[in-house]
Amino acid sequence: MFKQLGLIGCGLMGGSFALAMKQAGLVRRVVGYSKSPSTTERACELGVIDVAAPSALLAVAGADLVLLAVPVAATETTLKSIKHLVTRDMLVMDVGSTKADVAQAARRALGSMASAFVPAHPVTGREVSGVEFADASLYRGCQVVLTPTEHTGDTQLRKAEQLWEALGCQVRQMSPQAHDQAFAAVSHLPHLLAFAFMQSIAGQPEGDAFLALAGPGFRDFTRIAAGEPKMWRDILLTNREQVLEQSQLFQQALHAFEQAMRAGDAQALEDMLTLASGMRTHWRMGVEGATSPTPPQS
Amino acid sequence: MFKQLGLIGCGLMGGSFALAMKQAGLVRRVVGYSKSPSTTERACELGVIDVAAPSALLAVAGADLVLLAVPVAATETTLKSIKHLVTRDMLVMDVGSTKADVAQAARRALGSMASAFVPAHPVTGREVSGVEFADASLYRGCQVVLTPTEHTGDTQLRKAEQLWEALGCQVRQMSPQAHDQAFAAVSHLPHLLAFAFMQSIAGQPEGDAFLALAGPGFRDFTRIAAGEPKMWRDILLTNREQVLEQSQLFQQALHAFEQAMRAGDAQALEDMLTLASGMRTHWRMGVEGATSPTPPQS
């Protein structure tokens, strides 16, 4: 399908994409670049990329597909550094967790070549980073949200859809703004809460003793708190309005629970717990309307 | 080791205990009682119990080991209903997630026979309930916290330790108060936060659309929000002072994150994220001091 992938950023996300594309027979050659030369070298050794490029620009030379797998805050600088070699026939994508800023960055950095760029967010990840963890199956079965703008080329959008579907993903389209609102709710806020929760334990003198007692509930609840600090710093700052709004709504819900606890109002507490528990019990990943106990007849 | 287990409450926790005891060859006969006759019947059919008792009291008759696996709020009433058949030679335990209230309930309900009672909290569980999910391996490898008081018999405490160790558990002892403080921090508060988070999504018109996009981070973060509403109502009310205190500390930490986001203070945000992420990365279940990146030399 593609002759050459120019991979910019050879970490977990980028490396896994290269391996998945190769395994699916969707690309012939991968030319990779990472900010850290040792990462690029390691990616070569591991067979994640075929050729190491000395710069982002040179990774793009001759490519018909370009993937940016860099922290979201680095998107604009990276696009600027490659724009002289971006052509109308290329498909350029990112894999960032925020999309309004990325879409704007593409417009600013690429100008009239912005038609080549399709903002993409594959909803997957691990709490480890680095090319050593690159895994051809990372994207299989996950959702990929594409957020085209009025500048996005139709051909590129179609190619992007086909590519992710060929990798076994479920593709959705929405506006960058709708994307950022939804992911503030179901991803960015949970991360913020898990980070803040770990911080509040760390701040207590008995913190270490508490943690030694923690069980499987704690393990799962806090798994996302092991996320990469720089990556999450960028996401929380980039999407801060939406995240802060979701945090306010969360705190209102928390205060309602606390109020019922303080008042000893067992019925009110049980009602809220029943709603939350039922909703979570019926939720299924990637299935719309799965949270309603009695889904409407189709 | 034991001739007869009197099991009061044949749900997930009680049923799994009976199966584990049988599988380990630690008990000859299990007499079970559940509030719902259909549960007791099902427990018989599934081989979880050998004989169904028509009351909690009759489940205790002839037993040398009694396990209460009922919601924590039902502990006192249940102990009162069996006290006439509790003897000094018996070992009576519970499996509740709060311990100060349980220890007090035992003293009030059992009086001079309180020496037979050892408050126990096996740190395990599932987000499903009912005897159908009873599993002989539920307790294997988990921590069990025993919270003896000045009334607890030495013989009973020793027997309790041996029993849980024989089931493959790691046994710890602490005061009921220290237990409740620690579990408010690492278990009850995370549950409250996960429940409140689901509630805040439920309260938004776009909630269902958001949930359809949620990925593996959301899945793990909210797993505990599927917990049994009545059980968590009781835990949150029983241990509310400690939980509310932990919730305050959590909200202070959350506000510090929000403040850094509002101020666009990338360095402060990164510092907090680094601390939280490092702590979670180094944490290992059941290992003391595992959260320090450089553990002290022993």
TrEMBL record, chains A, B:
Alphabetical list of Gene3D superfamilies matching this protein: 6-phosphogluconate dehydrogenase C-terminal like domain (1.10.3660.10), NAD(P)-binding Rossmann-like Domain (3.40.50.720)
UniProt KW GTP-binding keyword: no
Residues covered by the Prephenate/arogenate dehydrogenase domain: 3-291
Tree of life domain: Bacteria
GO terms for MF: NAD+ binding; prephenate dehydrogenase (NAD+) activity; prephenate dehydrogenase (NADP+) activity
GO biological process: tyrosine biosynthetic process
SUPFAM superfamilies noted in UniProt: 6-phosphogluconate dehydrogenase C-terminal domain-like, NAD(P)-binding Rossmann-fold domains
Pfam families to which the protein is assigned, alphabetical: PDH_C, PDH_N
Claim: Cell inner membrane is one of the keywords in the record: no
Keywords in alphabetical order: Oxidoreductase
PROSITE patterns documented for this protein: PDH_ADH (PS51176)
Protein name: Prephenate dehydrogenase
Protein's organism: Extensimonas vulgaris
